[in-house]
């Protein structure tokens, strides 16, 4: 189980480090690369929990699709101008204070109730065919929410096209 | 002017050339791009300028003759023909009929070799790599004929003022005939690779359209003009050499797009072959050189003579002050004039079309810059 | 001795040992294979274009890949002055790693594969989608116009064709009913048919989309030489450039492998269930002996003694291999590998053939083809397949 924990902490470090670097880099392309790092770390966590399907989809959609589109836009944007702008506005100190307070609060309650819940743990046995399992729940048990979500996405796509294209 | 924000997308300015795989030499084109769309172009020429016209003023008429080969170096024979005929006009001599026939044959062979080079590079620009090797294979046959005739393959210096320096070699007619026999099948081969190909059609149809009026306004000549629908060919309009005696058609396009220019040039190669086939069987006997004095000293005066070079109208304006050297030679190169249609043709198209259009204009920078 | 063997065997049965061994083999051998694919490409190109191709290094240019590799390694490694050096360094690495990692689930034969997961195909797709990042970053970090244009083109192209590719693969998956690469091959054995016959349309769409995904002509816009010089790797030189080269050829092998696994029966021989065609099992040996015979014939024709020895030696190696393959256990072992590699070879040959026959599409035409034709057709294919499967 040592190996198990070891991988978890490595992945957690990758995710957190990537996340912090994503918001602190001045160069937008570098931010995108650290975002990729974070996303791959998350995919690693999915693998760690033996959810291979989710891991593959995470990489395929987020890294291969969405970040690539981010980069596509970033490349067209005038980066030199962007680098000159202030990265953080004046309320950052206040925001940091609020966040620390919140962390302390949540941490306190977690500590108080530490016996009443347990962290997610890998079952240890291979979840065979988890592609099928996901398909079954998506298209069987949760068909209606799934379809509603897809309809929402469709509406969003159409809206985006209408907004982007001034005359059709 | 609105403030520049970081959301402004960049208008990319690309410097294409003078070292670029498909500017056919040292043409430099500055492209203003919105994404891949061309907003405007600026042609910068002169990287190959050698002052050919000025050189003419310091050389005798005979000495200047080889220099014209270096302008359109893929059609050196045509250049030489134009110059020799211009000076002959000034001297008021006529080359003997045998010389006229051989000149016609060699010039038409040269047209074929020039068009073959154009076809290969044009296809290469559009991404078809293989036709280049096929066209060079046939061009080699033409160059072998030149080499056997005058010892040079590219800058031939084939003609002299007043006719030809050399009699044709033994087996000249047979070699030309052999070429005429194999060439139609090879033309079919190129067409099989390109003409019906959907990608080729997509890349050439409707690209770089130049209508008749625009073509005339821009002074465009040659296949580019004919593809735009005007039936203008100096071989028919003001016949020179022996063209009057042969039967041939002038192919004309309809839409003035890149595909039409392709079709016109392909058909021109067939027509050239027709001329050669007619000429080669009946080269008249006789001398190949007219009576021209050893030292050429034309009477004072001026003359303009133009011929239909492979790329368009090639004109020589020669002014003589009665001495052994021309007072002024002005050359009207077809590539230079045709090149100015580039901006009109590429505007609004994509980067990929720019190379297709540069290819379809068929420029040789040696001639543009002189 | 017996003890030693027993120890080795016990080590081999550990779960991580064999896969690690295979990984080492693939990573060590594949660059060489990629080099020979390049040689094959140059030779086929030369044949199509009525010339000879590389002939100088070794007999018939057979050592050319090694010479090229040495040349690339010794070249000066330039980084443009204003380039983003970190990303410039990282980009080719991403490309190569993504391409090579995809090999981990490719089923070369029934025993030669690194691993077999129940998301095999999806894994390859997702990993190769990471490879796009290498191209984009390479183009952007060079801080130069042509690479940037190349990167923009390749992003748009690969993202759009990935959709068509994915839909085409779904068509095949519906018939196979599994994502595991080994299971897909076995399904074809059980159903007694290659899936190309169930899904011809999906195969065609896959072939076109795969050509676009790997930036092969007629879809080689990201590196269209006559337009944008060399596209995204214009500023790369030496070893980094060779990494991109390696990634490109690896990707070609990967997409061919997917096509073979999903549509062309994987490592199965043609008609694996027809018994009277069992003589086909001797094909590996026959092929090796045929190559040996041709090498000997070539050796006789060579003029210089060095090349005669070279060709003769090559012939001897292949003859030995052929004789070795005649031993029944060896024959069974190489059976799958032979058919798989033969199919890869044929598909790569097809890729090369197409490259040197067609002109190049224009960027907008490419997009039109992808979005107006391939994607709707692929979706229609999925719907029809679904209806047919429900009805039957």
Task: Outline the structure in words.
- The complex is a heterotrimer of chains A (168), B (370) and C (392).
- Chain A is built from seven helices and no strands.
- With 168 residues, chain A is mostly helical.
- Chain A is globular and about 50 Å long.
- Chain B has 370 residues and is of the alpha+beta class.
- Helix content of chain B is 48%, strand content 13%.
- Chain B has helices at 52-57, 61-69, 76-91, 97-125, 130-150, 172-194, 198-204, 212-217, 223-227, 234-237, 258-281, 334-339, 341-346, 351-361, 365-369; strands at residues 12-16, 28-34, 37-44, 159-160, 163-164, 301-309, 312-320, 326-332.
- In chain B, strand 4 (159-160) and strand 5 form a beta hairpin.
- With 392 residues, chain C is mainly α.
- Chains in contact: A-B, A-C, B-C.
- Chains B and C meet through strand 1, helix 4, helix 5, helix 7 and helix 14 of B and helix 6, helix 10 and helix 15 of C.
Any idea what the radius of gyration of chain C is? 22 Å
The count of domains of chain B is 1
Low-confidence stretches of chain B: 1-8
The helix fraction of chain C, in percent, is over 70%
Number of strands of chain C: 0
Number of helices of chain B: 15
Number of helices of chain C: 15
Taken from the alpha-carbon principal axes, the silhouette of chain B is globular
Quaternary state of this entry equals heterotrimer
Greatest interface and its participating residue counts: B-C, 35 and 32 residues
CATH architectural type of chain B: Orthogonal Bundle
The percent of residues in helical segments of chain B reads 40-55%
Mean pLDDT across every amino acid position of chain C: 82
């Amino acid at each position: 189980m040592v190996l198990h924990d070891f991988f978890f902490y490595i992945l957690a470090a990758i995710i957190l480090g990537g996340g912090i670097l994503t918001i602190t880099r001045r160069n937008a392309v570098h931010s995108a690369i650290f975002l990729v790092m974070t996303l791959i770390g998350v995919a690693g966590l999915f693998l760690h929990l033996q959810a291979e399907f989710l891991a593959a989809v995470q990489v395929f959609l987020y890294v291969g699709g969405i970040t690539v589109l981010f980069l596509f836009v970033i490349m067209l944007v005038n980066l030199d101008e962007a680098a000159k702008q202030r990265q953080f506005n004046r309320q950052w100190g206040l925001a940091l204070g609020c966040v620390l307070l919140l962390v302390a609060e949540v941490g306190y309650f977690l500590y108080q109730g530490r016996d009443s819940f347990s962290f997610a743990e890998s079952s240890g046995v291979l979840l065979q065919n988890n592609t099928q399992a996901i398909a079954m729940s998506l298209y069987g048990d949760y068909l209606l929410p799934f379809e509603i979500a897809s309809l929402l996405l469709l509406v969003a796509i159409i809206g985006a096209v209408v907004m982007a294209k001034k005359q059709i | 002017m609105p403030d520049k924000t970081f959301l402004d997308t960049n208008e990319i300015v690309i410097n294409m050339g003078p070292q670029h795989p498909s500017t056919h030499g040292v043409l430099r084109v500055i492209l203003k791009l919105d994404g891949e769309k061309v907003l405007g172009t600026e042609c910068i020429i002169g990287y190959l300028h050698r002052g050919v016209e000025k050189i003419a003023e310091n050389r005798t008429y005979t000495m200047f003759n080889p220099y014209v080969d270096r302008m359109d170096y893929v059609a050196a024979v045509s250049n030489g023909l134009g110059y020799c005929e211009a000076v002959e006009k000034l001297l008021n001599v006529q080359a003997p009929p045998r010389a006229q026939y051989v000149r016609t044959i060699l010039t038409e062979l040269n047209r074929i070799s020039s068009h073959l080079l154009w076809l290969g590079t044009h296809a290469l620009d559009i991404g078809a790599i293989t036709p280049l090797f096929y066209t060079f294979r046939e061009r080699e046959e033409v160059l072998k004929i030149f080499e056997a005739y005058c010892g040079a393959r590219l800058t031939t210096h084939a003609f002299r003022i007043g006719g030809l320096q050399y009699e044709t070699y033994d087996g000249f007619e047979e070699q030309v005939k052999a070429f005429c026999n194999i060439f139609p099948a090879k033309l079919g081969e190129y067409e099989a690779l390109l003409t019906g190909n959907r990608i080729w059609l997509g890349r050439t149809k409707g690209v770089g359209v130049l209508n008749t009026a625009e073509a005339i306004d821009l002074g465009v000549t040659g296949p580019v003009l004919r593809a735009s629908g005007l039936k203008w060919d100096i071989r028919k309009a003001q016949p020179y050499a022996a063209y009057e005696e042969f039967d041939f058609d002038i192919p004309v396009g309809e839409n003035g797009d890149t595909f039409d220019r392709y079709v016109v040039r392909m058909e021109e190669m067939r027509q050239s072959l027709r001329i050669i086939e007619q000429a080669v069987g009946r080269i008249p006997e006789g001398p190949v050189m007219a009576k021209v004095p050893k030292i050429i000293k034309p009477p004072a005066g001026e003359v303009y003579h133009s011929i239909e070079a492979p790329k368009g109208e090639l004109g020589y304006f020669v002014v003589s002050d009665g001495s052994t050297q021309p007072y002024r030679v002005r050359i009207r190169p077809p590539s230079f004039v045709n090149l100015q249609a580039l901006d009109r043709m590429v505007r609004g198209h994509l980067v990929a079309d720019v190379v297709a259009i540069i290819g379809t204009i068929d420029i040789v920078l040696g001639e543009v810059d002189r | 001795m017996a003890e030693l063997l027993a120890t080795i065997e016990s080590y081999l049965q550990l779960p991580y040992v064999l896969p690690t061994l295979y990984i080492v083999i693939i990573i060590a051998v594949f660059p060489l294979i990629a080099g020979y694919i390049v040689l094959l490409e140059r030779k086929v190109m030369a044949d199509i274009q009525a010339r000879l191709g590389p002939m100088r290094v070794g007999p018939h240019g057979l050592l050319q890949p090694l010479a090229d590799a040495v040349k690339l390694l010794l070249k000066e490694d330039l980084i443009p002055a204003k380039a983003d050096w970190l990303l410039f360094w990282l980009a080719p690495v991403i490309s190569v790693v993504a391409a090579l990692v995809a090999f981990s689930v490719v089923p070369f034969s029934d025993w030669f594969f690194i691993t077999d997961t129940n998301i095999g195909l999806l894994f390859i797709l997702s990993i190769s989608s990471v490879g796009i990042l290498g191209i984009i970053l390479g183009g952007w970090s060079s801080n130069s116009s042509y690479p940037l244009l190349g990167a923009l083109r390749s992003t748009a192209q690969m993202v759009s064709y990935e959709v068509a590719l994915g839909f085409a693969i779904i068509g095949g998956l519906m018939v196979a009913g599994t994502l595991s690469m080994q299971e897909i091959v076995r399904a074809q054995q059980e159903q007694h048919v290659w899936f190309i016959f169930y899904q011809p349309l999906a195969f065609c769409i896959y072939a076109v989309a795969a050509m676009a995904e790997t930036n092969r002509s007629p879809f080689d816009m990201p590196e269209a030489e006559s337009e944008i010089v060399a596209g995204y790797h214009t500023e790369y030189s030496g070893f980094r450039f060779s990494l991109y080269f390696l990634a490109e050829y690896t990707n070609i092998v990967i997409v061919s492998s997917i096509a073979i696994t999903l549509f062309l029966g994987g490592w199965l021989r043609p008609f694996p269930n027809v018994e009277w065609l069992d003589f086909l099992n001797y094909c590996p040996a026959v092929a090796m002996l045929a190559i040996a015979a041709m090498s000997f014939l070539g050796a006789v024709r060579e003029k210089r003694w060095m090349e005669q020895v070279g060709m003769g030696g090559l012939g001897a190696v292949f003859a030995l291999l052929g004789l070795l393959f005649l031993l029944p256990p060896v024959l069974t072992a190489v059976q799958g590998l032979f058919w798989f590699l033969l199919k890869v070879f044929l598909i790569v040959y097809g890729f090369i053939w197409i490259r040197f026959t067609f002109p190049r599409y224009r960027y907008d035409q490419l997009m039109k083809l992808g979005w107006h034709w391939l994607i709707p057709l692929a979706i229609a294919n999925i719907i029809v397949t679904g209806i047919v499967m429900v009805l039957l």
